[in-house]
Amino acid sequence: MLRSCIRKLAEGRGVHRFIHGLAAGRTMPNIFPLLAISLIAAALFASAADATTCSASNPYTFDTTSIANTLTANAGPVMGNFYYLQYCADTNLAPLSSPQFTGNVGIGMTPAKALDVSGQFRASTDMESPSTYTDNIYPFTANTVLIRNNTAGLIAAFLGASGSVGIGTSSPNAVLQVNGTATFGNGGAGAGSVGNIQITGEPSSPISGRLTYGADGTGWQFRIAKNQGGTITDELTIQDNGTVGIGTTSPAVALAVVGDIRTGTSGSNGCLQNFAGTAIAGTCSSDAELKAVGDSVTGVLDGLARLQLVRFHWNAKAAGLYRASQAVANVGFVAQAVEQQFPELVSRDSHGYRQLDYTRLGLYGLEAIKELKALNDKQAGQIASLQEKLEKTDRLEAAVRAQAGAIRALRAEVAVLRRTAKTRMASR
Question: Are residues 333 and 425 in the same domain?
Answer without folding.
Answer: yes
